[in-house]
């Protein structure tokens, strides 16, 4: 099948081309994000491959449909950038990669914690300038600290197991509890307010839905311990960024590690080093010495990229063969 791959980067093009030796799809790569303005590029293709910062709204979907597209293959687990209701009305199938490497994302979350706690990013820059002072680099032992994990799906589960290895006290919040996880790690499931109030570190691992949008707002931030370390490798809009900026300014949040940002579309995955950053909120976040922002790279391991590519292409092959799509997402199945 002819496949239009949007928002292409060197790393995922390499992974897709390597995986495609097994599938034999006709891959056509485009650098622009998929939007209603660029959707016409997919004309003549039966499938499009979309990434997380595309904007697959009704307008884009209509153009895709008119151009012969029948299936939207997301090379991501999240699907909040797709208008599933419109896709259903237009008769377009949407498939995703429900999991690729929970280890990749969880390990990146831990990297953010360790970097912020032990100030390794600041120490690295100091030493390169021959500044060997230790002032301002004091951290804390992770052993014995309370870590609260919001969402105990595949990534949250790996996160809890890693932090269990550090000797942390573990709290979790999820709509469904995992008794086996509790047995093997000692994690205690609690209501979200209790988790926020008791945790030294809070890490977010839930999908973005209408119910979880701004899950961490001004009220939630105020309920957290003074000096809390807040980590988000899920979706940017889980946190009210304006409220986070205010909490950082008054010193209530001790550190923030963000691999995602609620207005990252059009910013992340791009080199803007020769331009003036137009997002004032992001620019303000970057001024805090206790805030570490990475550009949505939690998934970026060789293993995860290979799994994403193979599952994406397999989803397209299953659709082409008329097989039931095991990774399909539908609007009515995901409403809350």
CATH topology of the largest domain: Rossmann fold
Q: Report, as a whole number of angstroms, the end-to-end distance.
A: 34 Å
N-to-C series of helices and strands: EHEEHEHEHHEHEHEHEHEHEHEH
How many strands appear in the DSSP assignment? 12
Most strands sheet: 7 strands, parallel
The CATH homologous superfamily of the largest domain is called NAD(P)-binding Rossmann-like Domain
Across the major sheet, the strand order is 8-7-6-9-10-11-12
Q: What percent strand?
A: 5-15%
Mean pLDDT: 95
The parts where pLDDT drops under 50 for at least 5 residues are: none
Any idea what the shape is? globular
- Rounded to the nearest angstrom, the radius of gyration is 21 Å
Q: Give the proportion of residues in helices.
A: 25-40%
Domain tally:
2
Just give the CATH class of the largest domain: Alpha Beta
CATH architecture of the largest domain: 3-Layer(aba) Sandwich
Based on secondary structure, the structural category is: alpha/beta
Number of helices: 12
Question: Could you explain the architecture of this structure?
Answer:
With 336 residues, the chain is α/β, with parallel strands linked by helices. It has two domains: 2-100 and 301-320, NAD(P)-binding Rossmann-like Domain (Rossmann fold), CATH 3.40.50; 102-293, Rossmann fold (3-Layer(aba) Sandwich). The chain has helices at residues 10-23, 58-66, 84-90, 102-118, 120-128, 154-165, 179-185, 192-198, 218-223, 241-249, 280-285, 302-320, and strands spanning 2-5, 26-29, 47-50, 71-74, 93-95, 146-150, 169-173, 188-189, 201-204, 228-232, 253-258, 291-293. The strands form two sheets. Strands 8-7-6-9-10-11-12 form a seven-stranded parallel beta sheet, with helices on both faces. It has a five-stranded parallel beta sheet with strand order 2-1-3-4-5, with helices on both faces. Helix 11 links the parallel strand 11 (253-258) and strand 12. The longest helix is centred in the C-terminal third of the chain and has 19 residues, at 302-320.
